[in-house]
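Morning, I've got a small favour to ask if you have a moment. The fold is given in discrete form, as structure tokens running alongside the sequence. I'd be grateful if you could look everything over and explain what you see. No rush at all, and the record is pasted right below.
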Amino acid sequence: MSFGDLKSDSGLKQLNAHLESRSYVQGYVPSKADADTLQQLKSAPEVSKFPHAARWFKHISSFAAGEQKSWPSAGGPPPKAAPAAKDDDDDDDVDLFGSDDEGDAEAERIREERLKQYAEKKAKKPGPIAKSNVILDVKPWDDETDMKELEKAVRSIAMDGLVWGISKLMPVGYGINKLQIVCVVEDDKVSIDELSEKITDFEDFVQSVDVAAFQKI
């Protein structure tokens, strides 16, 4: 069977049209005609221009050269299709070899499923924990307040996501010092307003609490 010059678009066009409704050049199994036709091609046909010829080329090229030489001169009779599981009146043709369109659709489905699984896995992966560095000014009632006890009381506050840092006493006037203390908090777990309320609950020591500095880490 001749398709003209298969190194030209015109020849490839004839081959592509021939293979539009066939899996092989002749018959229903690979034959010498397929091997001979393959030898006439200089390279794989372009999928966009000759999809059926490209499908056939990929399939035939998958066989080893020695195996191709053993093929008969022509394809044998087609294998019998299995009885239809549906209604006996169903006359739909049975595609014995499948088609690239079906293969491409299945590959696309698998790819989309894997992308979905990857996106779900990535969404579940915990991101970085948002934290803030906070400096609090804790003011006593007067100069007679025991600042060591005041600081001890403040540091006794324990909350999930709260870590106390360094501290120092800062003069505010009239012999009164305020406690300036640093803490690091996880934003989703610790509310600065709630923390301030807990500190002011120590009424014997604390007059007020102010946020001197607040910085996201």
About this structure: Residues 9-69 form one domain. DSSP finds seven helices and four strands in the chain. The mean pLDDT is 84.
